Amino acid sequence: MGDGYARIKTIMRGLELNTVCEEARCPNIAECWGHGTATFMILGDVCTRACTFCAVKSGKRGGDIDIDEPRRVGEAVARMQLRHAVVTSVDRDDLGDGGAGIFAATIAAIRDHAPGTTIEVLTPDFQGDHDALARVMRARPEIFNHNVETVGRLYRRVRPKANLRRSLELLRAAKEMEPRSRTKSGLMVGLGETMDEVKELLDAMRAHDIEIVTIGQYLRPSLKHHPLIRYWHPDEFAELKRYGRELGFAHVESGPLVRSSYHAHEQAAAAEAV
Known about the structure:
Layout: H1 2-14, E1 18-19, H2 20-23, H3 29-34, E2 39-42, H4 69-80, E3 84-89, H5 100-113, E4 118-122, H6 130-137, E5 143-145, H7 155-158, H8 164-177, E6 182-189, H9 195-207, E7 212-217, H10 234-247, E8 251-254, H11 264-273
Parallel strand pairs: 2-3, 3-4, 4-5, 5-6, 6-7, 7-8
Antiparallel strand pairs: 1-2
Helix pairs in contact: 4-5, 5-6, 6-8, 9-10
């Protein structure tokens, strides 16, 4: 794990912060923490949805809102000297704005504590509430990310409380509200989709003005989660990357261990270079 890993863990525990790296059992945690990067998870550690692929614990309520959390995230970003900070959250359908206000406050706090850091937010769908989305976009994150996760045919089994059309429209609306922000989304393979279905989804994502896409292999967190249907071959990931670039995405990150926040700073830089 090394000194870098220990340093990040000490900062996170000292400031009482959650990371999606730990909660979602990310396979890249040692690499990312070793290099001094981590993805902050705000709004608690209990998700009000129960997607069948996800290791984060779920419940009907996500707990009380910690209004001091944005300040502590900003302080952590400054201590870690991050060039690019990624902030995500559990779904909070029990809140009137889905947690959008805390996202906006966290962006502001990072700017106060670390003004040179670029910011990426990975948000829930806010149940399609574009007023909530507008609260986030008024804070002008450099990257707005919301994952579509899988192809439409599998939503009922994989994301029963979500809707692909709603997610795509949220991403299109985010770009319209703040054209200076890059839009980003990610998906998994291995849940039972076909190559043609994934390419159709990429077509739809590009048609909704998504600029950065990540594609990774689903790894089953436990036997109670959605079964792993198959491992995709590295050549298939390469084919999806080629296809995505032909569609006009500014950047495509495609590989077995790719996750939404993996090499996030490099993705942002590559997209800006286009």
